[in-house]
Design goal:
Layout: H1 2-28, E1 40-42, E2 44-46, E3 50-64, E4 67-71, E5 76-79, E6 90-91, E7 96-100, H2 103-122, H3 124-130, H4 132-143, H5 160-168, H6 171-186, E8 189-191, E9 196-201, E10 208-209, E11 214-219, E12 224-231, E13 243-247, E14 254-266, E15 272-279, E16 289-306, E17 315-320, E18 323-328, E19 330-334, E20 338-342, E21 349-351, E22 364-366, H7 367-374
Parallel strand pairs: 1-22
Antiparallel strand pairs: 2-21, 3-12, 3-16, 4-11, 5-7, 5-10, 6-9, 7-8, 9-11, 12-15, 13-14, 13-16, 14-15, 16-20, 17-18, 19-20
Helix pairs in contact: 2-6, 3-4
């Protein structure tokens, strides 16, 4: 019985060994699975050369084109007027901005004018006897002399003798002394040189104003200028009268400006050139920060692409029969995100977006082909 069991187990072991051997032999000759090759889908664009405007970005703050810093040339107490001397107050051209108490100085001016009048009146008898031909014009001058008004100009001397006589009596020197006092008296009042608004007020009514003290700032809010510094390589491109588009930082408001002036020299330290952009708009305020886009020139027979598509050595990828290739190009202008290229043949298919890990000879599938296949 024992021999029968051992014989059965031996036969079973042999059969299992044969089956395992056959399976191993079958697996050895089975072909390995082929890994499917991945083909990247790319976005492409067909080149169509044309005229590309070269736009130079710049930014800066607005400053009123006409502005006046108010300073005192005389000393006195600030008198009250119809309008409060406060920031934001509007004035018309010629309207009184500041008035200082000048009663004491006014009295000295009137005294000098009175002395001039008396001096001329004292020589009238001598003029009647020695210069009867000029007596009447000096008589008319005295009759038109009004102490409450500005001193009129002296009559024109008709002869050398008359000139010596009048000058010898000190009349000419007295006249110019009076005119000098009147000129200084006018400085006790400051009028608006143009219609505008007060942006800074450093004195208040009743305060003592001293000579040389700054009183405030006055601007014309109708016209503003923005100073921008540009690279010297744009010096030959900038022209006066060029239109400029300006936007605020949020890109929500757009304004139209024009290049009013271009500095004729380059800053030796920064190697930049300064341009001034004039802009008019009721919504603008001084100090507002804007971004400008200056139309410097137009590049013909060129195309604009994303800057990250340009490879080292001035080359870009093109798609030829689903395979990437590279061609040389000529960049003519760089902006922050774009580059203007020349020397690309019309009809060439280029990448529209950069492909990570791309190389010449890489197999790709243009996105437009995928769209057609899905229809």
């Amino acid at each position: 019985m024992r021999k029968i069991i051992l014989s059965f187990l031996g036969v079973l072991f042999i059969v299992l060994s044969v089956l395992v051997a056959k399976k191993l032999i079958a697996n050895k000759h089975k072909p390995k699975p082929v890994k499917e090759k991945v083909v990247k889908t790319v976005f492409t664009d067909t080149v169509k050369n044309g005229t590309v405007p070269i736009v130079i970005p710049a930014n800066g703050s607005l400053v009123a084109k006409r502005r006046v810093e108010l300073y005192a040339e005389v000393q006195g107490v600030f008198k009250s007027s119809k309008k409060l001397f406060k920031p934001g107050q509007k004035y018309r051209k010629g309207e009184l901005l500041i008035s200082m108490n000048a009663e004491e100085y006014y009295a000295s001016v009137q005294s000098a004018k009175s002395n001039l009048y008396n001096t001329i009146a004292a020589i009238m008898p001598d003029l009647r006897l020695d210069f009867p031909d000029v007596y009447q014009k000096w008589q008319d001058y005295l009759q038109g002399f009004d102490l409450s008004k500005t001193t009129p100009q002296l009559p024109k001397m008709s002869s050398e003798k008359e000139n010596f006589f009048i000058t010898g009596r000190g009349i000419v020197s007295s006249y110019y002394n009076v005119k000098n006092l009147e000129q200084r008296l006018s400085k006790y009042k400051i009028s608006a040189p143009f219609s505008g608004v007060l942006t800074q007020a450093l004195v208040t009514e009743g305060s003592l104003i001293r000579v040389g003290q700054k009183l405030g700032e006055f601007i014309d809010p109708s016209v503003y200028e923005m100073e921008v510094a540009l690279s010297k390589r744009y010096a030959s491109l900038l022209k006066e009268g060029e239109d400029v588009v300006l936007q605020n930082l949020n890109k929500t408001e757009t304004y139209q400006g024009v290049v009013s002036r271009v500095n004729g020299s380059v800053n030796a330290t920064t190697q930049t050139i300064t341009a001034y952009i004039e802009v008019k708009d009721e919504a603008l305020k001084e100090g507002l920060y804007l971004e400008a886009r200056l139309n410097a020139k137009e590049e013909t027979n060129a195309v604009e692409v994303d800057r990250n598509l340009l490879l080292e050595g001035d080359q870009i990828f093109v798609v030829r029969d689903t395979i990437l290739d590279v061609i040389p190009v000529k960049p003519v202008y760089f902006s922050e995100t774009k580059v203007v290229l020349k020397s690309i043949p019309n009809g060439e298919i280029v990448l529209k977006k950069a492909v990570p890990g791309a190389y010449a000879g890489m197999l790709v599938r243009p996105f437009k082909n995928v769209k057609k296949a899905s229809k």
